[in-house]
Amino acid sequence: MSVTEHLYLDKQHPDLWKAISSLGLKVQEAAETAGIGRSLLELLNVRISQINGCAYCLDLHVRRAGEAGESPQRLAVLPAWRETALFTEKERAALALAESITELPAQQARDHAEGLARECLTAEEFSAVSWLAVTMNAFNRVSITSHHPVRRDRA
Q1: Is residue 9 part of a domain?
Q2: Where is the Carboxymuconolactone decarboxylase-like domain (predicted)?
């Protein structure tokens, strides 16, 4: 392999990829058990991937969000979710928490996001959203580091 070729981490260490994929499935299961619906789960995945700039994960999770019934309008305004009334209080709390975990802002900002989330989410939902953010950030980093390509749609 030449140094100019991309090294796919998932292909280089498939057992590690299987382990993180298994974690991702467990996190999804925990989120659904906690009452985090598939649409919100995918909104969170999209928002985290937007922040991280992961094209591969954005392509995947925008599609999955649509399949889960998410509207094109809400997906379009997701980066500006604070500026619209299109999101419920629970969704806003989950988005704020996921963004805080992704960006790791100063303590005061983290405390604010966590406080909002604790007011609107159950402990189980809070934990599930937190695990989702941690895991999605890991997936983003694997895909960004690996330069996973986005394939053009065959429309």
Answers
A1: no
A2: 33-99
